[in-house]
Amino acid sequence: DQTIYLADYAPVPVTVTHVDLQVRLDPLATRVSSRLTCIRQGPGDMVLNGELLKLRAVRLDGEELSPDAYSLTDTTLTILNAPDSFLLETEVEIAPQTNKALSGLYMSNGMYCTQCEAEGFRRITYMLDRPDVMATYDVQIDADLPVMLSNGDETAHGHWRDPWPKPTYLFALVAGDLIATHDSFTTMDGRDVALNVWVRPGDEGRTAYALDSLKRSMAWDEKVYGRVYDLSVFNIVAVDDFNMGAMENKGLNIFNSKYVLASPETATDADFANIERIVAHEYFHNWTGNRITCRDWFQLCLKEGLTVFRDQQFSQDARGFATQRIGDVLNLRARQFREDAGPLAHPVRPESFVEINNFYTATIYEKGAELIGMLRTLVGAEGYAAGCALYFERHDGQACTIEDWLACFEAATGRDLTQFKLWYTQAGTPVVKVTEHFNDGTYRIDLEQVIPDTPGQANKKPMPIPLAFGLLAQDGSEVVGTQIHELTSETDHLSFDLDAKPVLSILRGFSAPVILDFVQPDAERLTLLAHDTDPFNRWEAGRALAKDRLMRAVTDDADFDAPWLDAMTTLATDTDADPAFRALALALPSEDDLAQSLHNADVVPDPDRIYAVRRAAQLAMAEHLRDDLSDLRESNATPGSYDPKAEDAGKRALSATLLRLQTMLDGGKAARAAYDVANNMTDRMAAFACLLDAGDETVAHSFEQDWQDDRLVMDKWFMAQVAHAAPRDAVGVADRLTRHRDFDASNPNRFRSLIAGLTGGNPAGFHNPDGTGYEFLASWLLHLDKSNPQTSARLSTAFDGWTRYDADRQAMMKAQLERILGTTGLSRDLSEMVIRMLK
Ligand code: DPP
Ligand code: ZN
Question: CB within 5 A of ion ligand 2: which residues?
Answer without folding.
Answer: 304, 307
